[in-house]
Amino acid sequence: MAVLTEEQTMLRDMARDWASNESPVTAWRKIRNANEATGYDPAAYATMAEMGWTGVIIPEAHGGSDFGWLSLGLVIEELGKTLAASPIAASAVAASAILLGGSDAQKEQYLSRIASGELVATLAVDEGPRHDPTAIAATVDGGKLSGTKAFVAEGDSAGLFVVAATDGLYLVETGEGVTVSRRHLVDFRSHAQVTFDGAPADKLASGGADLLDAVLDRAAVLTAAEMLGMAGQAFDTTLAYLKQRVQFGQILATFQALQHRMANLFSEIEQMRSAVEAGLAAIDRGGDVRQAASLAKGKANEIGHLMSRELIQLHGGIGMTDEYDAGFYLKRMRVLEQMWGNTAYHRDRFARLSGF
C-alpha cells in the first residue's frame, strides 16, 4: 500500500465522504433509470469541479493543483466504490495528452477550461471492437480529420476530442464535421461512436506513437484505479452479506469453505492495489511507465473479473436481480475490462516489454 502524504489522505477522505453521502449507488440507479446519453449528473460533476478534482493533474499555472496521478487515482478509486459517474478520468487523460504533447497555445486554450470543469474532453482511439492502437485508419488532409472511432468514453458530452490519426494525435472540437452517435453498453455509461468527416483538427506539437503510448498508459492505469475501488467495495459488500445471511440454520460466514474464498479474494485485491498504486506512482516519477501500466491494468482486469463474479455468486439468487446493486458492479467491471486493453492484451504486452 502506498504511503500517503497528509494532503493525499485528506483528499482521499474527502472523496470517500462525498461519494458515500452525496453520490451513493442509489444516485447512480437514478441516473441509469433516466437513461440519458451523457450517463452522469452534470450538477454532481460541477460539485466535483468546485472541490478541485477536475484539475488534480493540471499545473497551477492553468488552474489546476498539480497534485499528481496517485492523488487523482485515490479520488477515482473512491468514486468507483459507489459507481459515481463522471467524466473526470476521461478529461484527465485528454488533458495529459495536451500536457505531454501540446504547444503553449494549446495548453492555454484548453487546460484551464478542463481544470474548471467547464470543458469535458476525451480520448478517441479505437476504431474496431477491440483495443488496438496499431489499427488506426483516421487521416488528416489539409487540417481536416476524417475517420470513425467506435467506442469513445464520455463522447456524448465531450466538447473536445483528442483523436488518434495515422500520423499523430489531434485536437478536434465538437461541431463542424463531428457526428456523435450513442452506443448502448451494459453499464449504461456514455460510450459513443464518433464520426469525423472533414473536421477541423489541430495537431499536438509532439504528436507520434510515443505520445499515444504514454497517453494510453495513463488511461489504462486510471481505469484500473476505478476497478480497484469497485473490487474493494464488492468485497466489503459480500463480506457483510455473508456475516448476516443465515442458511441451514447457520450464518454463512461460519462455513470454512466460504472463509477460504474470502481470504483468497482479500489477498488478490491487495495484489491488485499494489499494482495499481505502483502504476500511478510510476507516472508521477516520469520515464518509461509501460510495464507498470500493463501490470496494473492486467491485474485489475484479472482480479476485478474474479471479484465481480464472486460478488454475484456469493449473493446467490438476489445477486442476479436488478433490485440489488451487485449487477451494476458486474456490468461496469466487464466494460472496464475491455477498455484500453483486456487481460490477454496486457499480459502479452508486459511479456514483450520484459524481453520474452
Question: Average pLDDT, to the nearest integer?
Answer: 96
Gyration radius, rounded: 20 Å
Give the distance, in angstroms, between the N- and C-terminal Cα atoms.
29 Å
Order of helices and strands: HHHHHHEEEEEEEEHEEHHHH
Strand order across the biggest sheet?
1-4-5-8
Major pleated sheet: 4 strands, mixed
> Portion of residues in helices?
40-55%
**Overall morphology:** globular
State the low-pLDDT regions, or none. none
Please, could you describe this protein's structure?
The protein is of the alpha+beta class and 356 residues long. The protein is built from eleven helices and ten strands. A four-stranded mixed β-sheet has the order 1-4-5-8, covered by helices on one side. A four-stranded antiparallel β-sheet has the order 2-3-7-6, with no helix packed on it. The protein has a two-stranded antiparallel ribbon with strand order 9-10. Strand 2 and strand 3 (144-153) form a beta hairpin. Helix 4 (69-81) packs parallel to helix 7, helix 7 (209-244) packs antiparallel against helix 10 and helix 9 (290-314) runs antiparallel to helix 10. The longest helix is centred in the middle third of the chain and has 36 residues, at 209-244. The mean pLDDT is 96.
Describe the structure concisely for a colleague:
The protein has 356 residues and is an alpha+beta fold. Helices cover 53% and strands 14% of the residues. The protein is built from 11 helices and 10 strands.
